[in-house]
Amino acid sequence: MSARFERFFRQVQRDFRLWLFFTAALTVYRVVFILIFREEIGDGGRLHSLLAALLTGLRFDAQAATYWMLAPLAASLLCLVGDEKVVQMGTVPFSRWEAAANRVRAVTGLLFAFATPLISVVAVQYYREYHDVFDQMLFHVGDDDTAAILATLYHGYNLVTCLTLAAVLGGLATIAGKHWALGPLLPRRWTARLAEGWVAPSVAALFVGLSLVAGLRGSLGRVPLQTKSAAVTSDRLLNKAVLNPYVALADAACLRRQMAGSRGLKSFLPDGDIRAALRRAFPGAPAADNIDRYLQRTAAGPRIVPPRHVFLICMESYDAWPLEDKYAGLDLVPQGRRLAREGLHLRAFLPAGSATIDSNTAILTGIPYASLCARYEPYGRRDLPTSLPTTFHRLGYRTRFFYGGSLSWQNIGDFARDQGFDEVYGAGHLEDRAPANEWGVADQYLFDFVARTVRDDRPSFNYVVSTSYHPPYNLDLRSLGVPLPRVPPELEAEFRGDRPALLNLLGHLRYADRELGRFVDSEEARLPRPLFAVTGDHWSRRFINGRPTLFERSAVPLILYGKEVLRGAAFPPGCAGSHIDLAPTLIEAAAPRGFRYYALGQNLLAPRARFLGFNLQWMIDADEVVEVKSENHFAPVPGRSAAAPPADFHAQLLRMRAFQGVAWWRLRNGPELR
Asked: Shortest CA distance to 532 belongs to which of 334, 335, 358, 269?
């Protein structure tokens, strides 16, 4: 057995040396990438930011190198079995399995030596063209002018020279690998000693196994390395440099597979008739050959005075049920309840989607979520006419985007810029030592940063996305001064499950609500004519027991608060809505009479005979929420009575699908009908 372990150790040390070579080569790419685009480094590109980008990138490099080493490592494992037949390779005798492992390692090294320069050159040129690392646009080349793109690559970036450079670099890497990376790390006598007995082989085998797991996961911790960890600085270029081309390509392919699962336009419009869908969605609009003409609106003008500063706050998992009187005894959202009481509170309100990114992209674009990743679609990578920041920019407002987490998460930072925000801020801009969970900094530090950034030099539109009320719920609530909630007697019988864990997570909701109220109060006292719109991205997926009603597991609140701006305003009777209605509601509150804008949603403060909110899963009116897959699955909005689904359910469902079909077409194909 010792002979077999000796053979294995002789080979695995060679694997380790090749792994170091792979990791180093990918790190060299990152350094070269930064040097090439160094002029794009902004004020955030200080020495500590550069080191943070390089160190985080090193983890991704080690992960990619580990995947490259799977075949050589598997061949090395075969050295633990088999016979002792000797094969001469040059002047060194090896067993048959060792010879096979050496060949596999050499072939892998050769493939890496030529593949890495090639993909690196492509990655640099891709960044030149699209100003981004590999993303979904890589798979949308055919949606653009393919001939123009190829011509640009050939003439503008000298395709032949790039391929020649990749080949030369591949040859140099092959020479370097042959002379350094494929040799042994330890003398043969040391491996012979290591294989003696059973303790050393067992420890060494365990070390190899743990190293393999750590390499594949990029971490030995509970959470594996994820691409959302790439935005470790406040500088965009350095953040883009963190991902090596292999990781960026794998991430783009993964997202592409997710998008390919969509059933496309016919999932909303079985007949594929987009013109009929437009007539159904906008029955009063004149026929046109451009979708955007159907979306054009004319503002009626503000009721009293327009807001000078608009804050649209999308709170992580800030759902509707804690604001209901039934749960008031838990005292989870006293600030939200106060703002709802002193302002306007719409209870019959749905999120655009069941995921944070889907709801946020729908709010920003004003377009319903339609099973497409808007931020990666050809027409989602440019500012849409329905975009909230674009419209407020036309109104003369300074537009800012604030996110408590990493701007590389779901490409949210670039998407915000694409949609027209003047300024974009993420966790990399906030305090280095701020308490945080895996998704972002504690809300008070986010809100404090917003308050420091927003000035009264000109009107502003500010979109704020919080992160604290999110698993793993590991903020130190005690140090943050947040007591855990207590269960009131009237809810004692309803509490189920792990009570300490449940109270801890509800304590995070209480913390998020406290910081929301503190921020609103401070900005109301500091700034003239503020308007606050507060909602949640989706329901929290947490409840005091395992049996929430359909309303409790679907609805999020909409709270409008602004004493000067909303004086005398009210939601009309029968009002209901969803996230896509935020854009026209806020625009109408700020725009002068006659201002032209674009929207798919409805102004929730305008009189209307019938209001309806919807997303892919649910439909809501003032009385009830209905699951669209089964009209028999419905629940009343608290305080209302609903003994049956609405009589016009099928007609409303067809109209809802028409809106979603229009959204799908607009993002995928653009405004023109063809």
From this structure: 335
